[in-house]
Design a protein that fits this description.
alpha/beta; nine-stranded mixed β-sheet; 9 helices; about 35% helix; about 20% strand
Length: about 300
Amino acid sequence: FRPFVRHAMSVRTASHSGSWYTNNPVQLEAQVDGWLRAAKPPPHARIRALISPHAGLSYSGRTASYAYSHVQLDGVKRIFILGPSHHEYLPGIAVSPFQKWACPLGELHVDTAMLQELQAQSTPQLPIMAFGKSADEEEHSLEMQIPFIAQLLRTSSGAVRTDIGIVPIVVGSLSGQQEVEYGQLLAPYLQDPANLFCISSDFCHWGTRFRYTHYDPRCGQIHESIEVLDKEGMALIQAQDYAGWVQYLQTTKNTICGRVPISLLLTAMQAMNNPFEVKWVQYAQSQAITSKSESSVSYAAGVVFA
């Protein structure tokens, strides 16, 4: 890992298009726009952050749309995207090394000035590194947010707006103290209404292939037990109870892959005096399993009002 270096015309490929989502721009626009229109929320105060899943769009896209349909971009200058590192060990957080991110719907501009501002605050205790290019393109947690963001940034002519940049941040394995201190570092940015935060996370990964088969038969079928388990954690997030969230993860071992990015959202909110409201707007599972031979992944969409 190295300091951020600006490379001329450095573009991250849409490495998961054609597999995790379609690489056909017409089909992708119709799919994403259709979900957003179907999930249109009632009028409400503008959101400061959202929580969205990152599985293949055919599995989690409909759920994600319930969060993204709340987005209002008036006054927004940049969109922070925080997701977990699935393949690369990170002893801190890392920013994308690219200047642009490709998407079938159009290229998104990276706010490189903000990435440099963040890296200027890096310390040995709180490292803020540049992610390696190959590791960045292998990671899917941030890329799976891009089709929704690109669709929201598209103008009537079909071009993607360049006045709003993205701030891609991959979150690694952190100590409890680091979670608190990174949250304090990010708090002023969350407080600024010019910024929108997107937290990328799936919820329970259940089944032998995930090495997680917690089941409470008192809840009913396996999928009902999973829902109870997930919603226990979701309630703690909604209550902005960081200590309770940490205890929940330690007790249940629930396989929430974006648990650390969610922790940073909670500690950032905790660091500010402003009252926030967290609201869950959708929950789903990849399938309603009833047998221990099956597997599933849970998806939840949440929004944060300032």
